[in-house]
Amino acid sequence: MPDRRIIAVLGATGSQGGSLCDAILDDPQGAFACRAITRNPGSDKAKELARRGAEIVAGDLDDEASLTAAFAGAYGVYGVTNYPEFLSVEREQQQAVNIARAAKSSSAAHVIWSTLDDTDQWLPLSDPRMPTLMGGYKCPHSDAKGQIDHVFTDLGVPTTFLLTCFYWDNFYTIGWGPKKCEDGTYALDFPIGNARMPGIAVEDIGKCALAIFRQGADAIGRHIGISGEHLSGAEMAEKCSAGLGIDCRFAPVTAEAYRNLGFPGADDLGNMFQIFEEFEEQYRASRSMETTRTLVPGALTFDQWLAKYRERIPL
Ligand SMILES: NC(=O)c1ccc[n+]([C@@H]2O[C@H](COP(=O)([O-])OP(=O)(O)OC[C@H]3O[C@@H](n4cnc5c(N)ncnc54)[C@H](OP(=O)(O)O)[C@@H]3O)[C@@H](O)[C@H]2O)c1
Q1: Would you say 75 and 5 are in contact if contact means Cβ atoms under 8 Å apart?
Q2: Residue 86 C-alpha to ligand 1 middle, in angstroms?
Q3: Is 78 helix (H, G, I), strand (E, B) or coil?
Q4: What is the 242 CA–ligand 1 centroid distance (Å)?
Q5: Which residue minimizes the CA distance to atom 1 of ligand 1?
């Protein structure tokens, strides 16, 4: 199909971009061609994408010229940055600027920027409920993204702002699943109190992005939030018990205890979970399950995700 429009996918070897590559490559309509951008075209993941039909192109988010070259001739661009790799607001925002400028100079017709909320809209820095981090942010990995959205608009880049949420796949990719207790039972310990937390199967992020590219002009200029289900910690634990055949309960640590866990970025994530709890209504309102199922009717529920991925979850 020589006339297929190209989607240039950043993060193609990772969770979000990888799921979009899967969605494009597995799409029975085959409307788009997949261009996977990576710093390392020789990696096993890149080779596997090539084997499945993706075009592999080198590009580095820290190098605008490399992105301009990588976006050449593409109809669409999926932009995602990887804050946890470097924990720097300035670097993540510069990467976002590089994406926007490269998309502008290569005349991309539709960009999806994977952003998150600027929590300043809910919680001023002067609010004493949680510490201000890095000199000016309550939730650096989220604020960094939300506060740079305007660059896409300022440059006149036709952009959809995609608000993702907690990946359920974190259970097996970064060990955020049920933790085994000394008595043989399991616990989920996110500091979210009684709040319901939006979550999503990573595979559905890519499917939603593909549906947004299909919508084209109708989606440009919009913030679109996605989630498979909004669940409390107790509901997730109950579903883990049933779906994984374990005795799992919800035993939240405090946000303060989470901030002090000692790993890099723990304070940012402790604040994030506290924001999920204290600004539950606002956070959930921007991530509609209905919108998600309008884009992807078969988007997975947590039960369905557990059934599909249970073998990957370390217990
Ligand atoms: N975990 C969650 O629940 C969650 C929820 C919402 C949002 N997020 C956000 O998601 C983002 C991370 O996305 P992800 O989970 O898809 O990441 P991931 O699975 O860790 O993969 C990172 C991807 O980014 C690419 N990458 C990193 N630095 C690059 C650079 N300088 N140039 C080009 N490519 C680069 C990597 O490609 P190569 O190594 O092949 O170059 C890889 O494909 C973070 O910013 C995080 O805040 C996470």
Answers
A1: yes
A2: 11
A3: strand
A4: 31
A5: 167
| Cβ atoms within 10 Å, residue 202 | 21
Q: Whose CA is nearest to atom 21 of ligand 1?
A: 14
Domains contained in the chain, CATH given: 5-312 (3.40.50.720)
pLDDT at 1 over 60: no
Q: Read off the pTM.
A: 0.98
User: Cα–Cα distance between 74 and 215 in angstroms, integer?
Assistant: 17
| Closest C-alpha residue for ligand 1 atom 26 | 11
The residues with which 223 forms a beta bridge, in sequence order, are: 161
- Across the chain, mean pLDDT equals 97
Amino acid at 77: V
Query: What tens digit of pLDDT does each residue of 58-70 get?
Result: 999 999 999 999 9
For 184-188, what is the mean pLDDT? Answer: 98
Percent of the chain's residues with pLDDT above 90: 98
2: pLDDT strictly greater than 80: no
